[in-house]
DNA sequence: CGGTGTTTTCGCCTGTTGGTCGAAAACAGG
DNA sequence: CCTGTTTTCGACCAACAGGCGAAAACACCG
């Protein structure tokens, strides 16, 4: 008689910490893969779908209610991906704003996504997928809102994007692109300069805090159909 | 005692037929949802992952070995999505080139994705997801290869794209964009004109028949890093 | 064999967008 | 008040997609 197919959910929760893109992991206390680092998650419950399940498990096991965005990555289903039982996993990407510092249990820690410790099962692959998904979506959506504080300067946002993308980002270009796409807006206020002086930076925020695709460059779009002028000329205040 | 969580795979197989984007459905012969139209698929086997499973089920149940591309869409897991038992589904998008005409069983038929019959369970939602995924990826990948014959004229390709995208497409622009991205190449041959005459059309083919992301417009890319000049000036052989 | 109609191809122009650079603005500290 | 620092903003450039029309290459007909 075939072993019943179990289903679990796993979340790669990412956050920019200390200028680096990091992922939340916990250290397994028992076999299999005891001592190795795993993604938070758990069994799918009888009365929930996978989205509900992953949010429940996150809130329950590692106290992360500050996740600003959760999305499904995909299914991992190799028959031997977990020794012992057949277990199919639905993986998720979770994002936490950089100004949050959620309490996490003892056996839990943040690790840079590009410098993981010994990981359990196929979880390293899931982390890679999450990182790649984030990098891709930063380019054509407003997903930055889930990495940034509610309010920020362009310099701070530039650093966040550079850390997430893994390469330098021009502040000028970042501001212009995001503004033109209508996802960034100035609050009108300014931030106090640092100890070395300098012109006070304007404070910005994301206009929406829910995922939106913003890249109009969908090639081969219908003729003539320009999606309406969106960026009012940024009239300050 | 909780009902065990079963797992199934479902495929929305799409093809351009008669100038319309259609999906392969079969009519259920028993309850639940008897008489309604469902996607091909079935239970996940003990020794296969979901990708293997969906290919097996397609080949087995509806004789579609001509699918040029298969990719995972996502998980559908509402507790009540299928009456009776708890069943989690991994959905897939499958694509068949327009020149193929696979044999299909009696209870099976093609339907336009925008004019579905009464569908079973949540399968209509999966079809929508598949259609949307296809439309999105046609714009920034070479996915057209999976809809088109091995060789074709620009006019024929234009019709395929128009049918898939659901809006008119300019032949000039289509050719230029795909050529610049390096996914299209002329074979050097020409096709015979139609009964009304006209200049013989050049024959093209896709340079690769595997999925590749071709949109260099990843915003905020690393400074200076231009991805190499790829389009040789199209020196007609 | 030349004219007409048809289909395809190709070059040119235009508007938008992203990338880069440098000057100017606005501050702190001496 | 002068210098150093940080931010902001305008200007310029290259790449690219969309649109248009002329030219090319054929069939058919008289």
TrEMBL record, chains A, B:
Mind telling me which InterPro entries this protein's record contains? NUDIX_hydrolase-like_dom_sf (IPR015797), NUDIX_hydrolase_dom (IPR000086), WH-like_DNA-bd_sf (IPR036388), WH_DNA-bd_sf (IPR036390), WHD_NrtR (IPR054105)
**One Pfam family linked to the record:** WHD_NrtR
Q: List, alphabetically, the PROSITE patterns matched.
A: NUDIX
- Name the coiled-coil region(s): none
Domain (Nudix hydrolase) ranges: 5-134
Q: Which domain of life is it from?
A: Bacteria
List, alphabetically, the PANTHER family matched: ADP-RIBOSE PYROPHOSPHATASE, SLR1690 PROTEIN
State what protein this is by name: NUDIX domain-containing protein
């Amino acid at each position: 008689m075939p072993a019943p197919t179990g289903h679990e959910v796993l979340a790669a929760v990412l956050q920019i910490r200390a200028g680096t893109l990091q992922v939340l992991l916990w250290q397994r206390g028992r076999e299999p893969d005891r001592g190795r680092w795993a993604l938070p998650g758990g069994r799918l419950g009888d009365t929930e779908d996978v989205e509900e399940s992953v949010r429940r498990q996150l809130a329950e096991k590692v106290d992360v209610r500050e996740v600003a965005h959760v999305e499904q990555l995909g299914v991992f289903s190799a028959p031997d991906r977990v020794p012992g039982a057949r277990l199919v996993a639905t993986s998720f990407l979770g994002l936490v704003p950089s100004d949050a510092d959620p309490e996490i249990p003892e056996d839990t820690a943040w690790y840079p996504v590009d410098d993981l410790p010994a990981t359990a099962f196929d979880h390293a692959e899931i982390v890679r997928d999450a990182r790649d998904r984030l990098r891709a979506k930063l380019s054509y959506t407003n997903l930055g809102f889930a990495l940034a504080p509610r309010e920020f300067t362009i310099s701070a946002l530039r650093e966040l994007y550079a850390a997430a993308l893994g390469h330098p980002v021009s502040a000028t270009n970042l501001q212009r692109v995001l503004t033109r796409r209508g996802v960034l807006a100035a609050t009108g206020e300014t931030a106090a300069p640092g100890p070395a002086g300098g012109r006070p930076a304007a404070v910005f925020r994301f206009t929406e805090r829910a995922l939106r695709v913003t890249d109009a460059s969908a090639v081969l779009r219908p003729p003539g159909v320009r999606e309406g002028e969106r960026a009012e000329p940024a009239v300050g205040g």
